[in-house]
Amino acid sequence: MAGQSKTSGSDNLVRVQWFSLKSELRRAAPWGILGLVLIVIVTAGLYAAGLAPPRHGPLLTLLVAVLLAAIFLAQYLLPRVRVDDERISRRILWWWDLWPWEAFEAGEVQRGAGKCNFRLSTEPFWCRELNLELLEDDDAEVLLSLILRVWTPPPVPDCPEELILKLTWQGRPTVVLTAEGVCLRPRGKRSSDVSREVAIGSSAAGEFIPWSDVQCVRIWRLQPDRDDFRELLIRWDGGEVKLRRRRNGEDTQNWTGPTAELISAWLLRQQAIPMLEDYALLGEPRTLAELDAREEREAPREKDLRHMRWIVYAMWLAVPATMMIGPAGAKLGMPPMVGLYALMAHLLYATASKRVEAARATRARQRSELERRLTRPAQGSPS
């Protein structure tokens, strides 16, 4: 749905614009409301037939259903974002979260791990993320272009001699990056002990891997021109460290300490790293190696999609199964509800399958263009 616009005044630099969620997300609201209506109807029928225990009565179920329906309407059907010449306003249920343009100009707002994500760390945790990817693609691009016109990147501090990162997974060890290599410090070891022991090459502070033993240092940026990264992989024989800023569509950084921009700049300055691969997830691949790495990265997702197909089949098979098991009331109410969930899962699978096929076709085109470019004879060479 295109953003609805109107002029707020002749002196304003930005028109007042309203943006709604993506159409597939807006379609989730009627499905959710329909499911709530079915729950109320089935519950009322069970009480009328005397098949449900009279604990709270159907009134409580009706009140909960009305409240959830109001949440669906506010969060999915009403406009999500409002833009004017003073701020960006983002709806959270019936309230508005404000992002003033001055915060973007002052360098207070950071880029998120997504293409259209921004983060204001001074805000409470429930409203510090501005995710424009929930809008229609064209609307997100329009709003992103407005933001980038005034956005100032936060300053990156000078690169120190070493970086200390505290991981939030696998026992929460600490990773120390130095000019000599990588040290994994178990939880509970002091940073001063790690620095001293790494400097003399001791493994008493944990596992120390010199850069000469590292097999791969791979940086995954979202776009080639961005200073941060989406994912960083440091792999050696027998282990690896993976820093990730996004998982399952959500910004979830799995370490604390230096920012992704500082870590990336620090790695690019190290001359001792033998295998540093700087790749991008979006845009045209610059080399065949980058395209091969993208295909390797997408392989697990295609496998998950095949598993999802069997789950959808099982959900459809569960619809007639609910007609044959359970009490009489369940036989009456369960098939429509299970069928509704099966239809929702089927639509999700169809959408994901189309995206995978489109991505596979894009990579095939990119490979053909890269191979043609590499095999094309240099212009001006003698025939």
Please explain how this structure is put together.
The protein folds into three domains: 14-150, no CATH class; 163-280, PH-domain like (Roll); 288-370. The strands form five sheets. Strands 1-2-3-4-5 form a five-stranded antiparallel β-sheet. It has a five-stranded antiparallel β-sheet with strand order 12-11-10-9-18, covered by helices on one side. Helix content is 43%, strand content 21%. The chain has 383 residues and is of the alpha+beta class. It contains nine helices and 19 strands.
Identify the notable features of this structure and list them briefly.
19 strands; 43% helix; single chain; PH-domain like; 3 domains; 383 residues; alpha+beta; globular; 9 helices
Helix-strand layout with pairing:
Elements: E1 4-6, E2 16-19, H1 23-26, H2 28-48, H3 58-77, E3 81-83, E4 87-92, E5 95-100, H4 101-105, E6 110-111, E7 117-119, E8 129-131, H5 137-150, E9 163-167, E10 174-177, E11 181-185, H6 191-199, E12 207-210, E13 214-221, E14 231-236, E15 239-244, E16 246-247, E17 250-251, E18 255-256, H7 260-269, E19 276-280, H8 288-321, H9 328-375
Parallel strand pairs: 13-19
Antiparallel strand pairs: 1-2, 2-3, 3-4, 4-5, 6-7, 7-8, 9-10, 9-18, 10-11, 11-12, 13-14, 14-15, 16-17
Helix pairs in contact: 2-3, 2-9, 8-9
What is the helix fraction of residues, given as a range?
40-55%
Biggest sheet overview: 5 strands, antiparallel
Shape: globular
Residue stretches low in confidence (pLDDT < 50, at least 5 long) are 4-12, 191-204
Q: Strand share of the residues?
A: 15-25%
Kindly provide the radius of gyration, computed on alpha-carbon positions and rounded to a whole number of angstroms. 27 Å
Q: Report the mean per-residue pLDDT as an integer.
A: 80
Measured distance between first and last alpha carbons: 55 Å
- Which H/E pattern describes the elements? EEHHHEEEHEEEHEEEHEEEEEEEHEHH
Indicate the structural class.
Answer: alpha+beta
Question: What's the helix count?
Answer: 9
Number of strands: 19
Number of domains: 3
Strand order of the largest sheet: 1-2-3-4-5
